[in-house]
Fold this sequence. Notes:
This protein is mainly alpha-helical.
Amino acid sequence: MHPHSLLDNRLIPQPAFYAALGTSRSGGDKLKQNDPNFPKPIKFGKSRQAAVYYVVAEVEAYLAAKIAERDARYKKSAESHPCSPPQQPL
């Protein structure tokens, strides 16, 4: 059994997912090839034109992990440069 609840199993179409990432289809395909943690797609049908979807909960978990990874890098960078001025809010 997959650990997601029924509501977490909502799907997002690939074009909407890539748009949310701010990337093109080819950019998304490169991410998919180079990042082993990239969410796995679900395809309904065997043809090349069959629609591709992603599980929303897996997309959210992937993005949360990327944000945590970024935050850890910045924290580590700030600790190694303690004289840096504090960051101003945007």
